[in-house]
Amino acid sequence: MKDAARKVSPEDIAVGVDAEGQLESGMTAHARLAFENLVNLLAVACTKMTDVVELAGFHTDLRGDIANFVAVKATFIPKDLPAQSAVGDTLLVYSKLLAEMRAVAVVGSASR
After folding, report:
1. Angle 89-92-14 (CA atoms, 0-180°, nearest 5)?
2. Is 13 exposed, middle or buried (0-12, 13-18, 19+ CB in 10 A)?
3. What's this model's pTM, rounded to 2 decimal places?
4. Which of 47, 61, 80, 96 is least enclosed by beta carbons within 10 angstroms?
5. Which of 52, 58, 61 is nearest to 26 (CA)?
6. What is the CATH class of 27-111?
7. Which DSSP string do the residues of 8-77 spell out, in sequence order?
8. pLDDT tens across 63-82, in order?
């Protein structure tokens, strides 16, 4: 299966910042842009959101912001997919981030 798996470079991180590196304000805007960035990264890897099989979220205010994050996620990912976990965290890669995501996609899994 030549070229069955494609890697996105480690520098490609789906965070809630715009093209100029500006951080979005508030969880709803932050999550929306993070999911838009994830869609773009998946396209580079020749896959799509329906191929995401696992999503992990790391949140600085899990109880306060999770409802907003979940509402945005629902606009990008079909109901009941994928396997998900949410973890409260006090320190993310950038100090002003409200959340980070880790997504695992299997190319073509949506059609299986």
Report:
1. 115
2. middle
3. 0.80
4. 80
5. 61
6. alpha beta
7. --TT----SB-TT-PBPSSHHHHHHHHHHHHHHHHHHTT--GGGEEEEEEEETTHHHHHHHHHHHHHHHS
8. 999 999 999 999 998 777 78
